[in-house]
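Batch manifest line 436
LIGAND: KE4
JOB: complex structure
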Amino acid sequence: MPSPRTIAKSEAAFARSSELMPGGVSSPVRAFKGVGGTPLFIKDAKGSTITDIDGNAYVDYVGSYGPMIVGHAHEIVVAAITKAAGRGTSFGAPNEGEIRLAELITGAMPAVEMLRFVCSGTEAAMSAIRLARAATGRDLIVKCIGCYHGHADGLLVNAGSGALTLGTPSSPGVPTSIASGTISVAYNDLASAAEAFEKYPGQIACFAVEPVAGNMGLVLPAEGYLKGLRELCDRHGALLLFDEVMSGFRVAWTGAQGIYGVKPDIVCLGKVIGGGLPVGAYGGRRDLMEKISPSGPVYQAGTLSGNPLAMAAGIVTLELMKEPDAYDRLSAKSAKIAHGLRALSASTGVPLAVNQIGGMVCPFFVKQAGQAVTNYAEATACDTQRYARFFHAMLDNGVYLPPSQFEAWFPSLAHDDEAIAKTLAAAEIALIACAD
Ligand code: KE4
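JOB STATUS: finished
ARTIFACT:
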């Protein structure tokens, strides 16, 4: 058993940060509310390892919630950022890095004929929705319960009282008038998607969906689901918006759209394309994107959009992932972790449903062995208390997981056999510890 970890410095830092920032953090999930305890303040990271300010090192599966796909502080990424910084950190003018990164993205995703860079996935999604409404002249949008598209007002919406009713705010500060422009349906449920179009004929601008869902934990699209959404959108004159902020360049070079062979009209991207620096993007059919200012009337702008440092980090990250076997290597690592967790579930008797695709893995703490997790209802029925106990036992054994059952694990190319062996050894201890 490793010596007890001290986190006294993180505790002191958290006390201070909590006086200065809401919840002591810059983004809610980091506050450990889903698992309890004190969030760890990170000193530095390298490869698959992250180290907190008390000097405790962990195998990291948060990976900044997706961006760190080639590993932390990769020498090529650090060198590219350093070189770009020496040439100036921001110009407020076009730079050739935007062209190179746009070429890499449009070369990987045929649905993206043209794109606009922004600074976050939220910005990408909110801008894409504005574009869809402008292009169709329609106001309503449809999203799936359990899918997350950032915190723009129209996307912080609960499903209405009954299924398919117009949305109600899921956060104070969101006007009902805005939330009511969003209809929520069940993910992986084509019938509910069809009902939305039938109930609101000619009014729906777009159907927004995570083609691989990563914000209810990892839930894969059911056979034919994405193809069915494509057909519904075509039949009803709506646009299909794939939010690949998380799945883009994470599950495959071509994203989920390439794996499942469904071509969306608009795509949102983020995370990996910035290599750890703030980048988002939205793109799609040229006829749509040319409606964006200044080539068209749909306004969208950003001081730091296309920032040269962020472009440099994104370019070298994608170039590393473009190498012929990069996704085979990443998927093999990810599958090895998934297979190991399934075997440990059997050997320890702790029921797990482990979903995995490309560089994403997610063990769900289901109630009964053999249960699958294929939708929001099944995901939210999981034992979050047991996950919390597992999370802390993994920390005690040197593995840093997302502090929520409803996040995916993000392995990187830097997760070598030693890191994976350490992860599975820790998982065996942690599962036994939370078995009762
Ligand atoms: P950002 O605004 O956080 O860059 O992106 C929002 C977003 C949009 N679309 C999808 C599919 C996303 O997963 C996200 C953000 N993902 C979360 C992880 N669940 C970011 C972590 C956080 O909120 O701190």
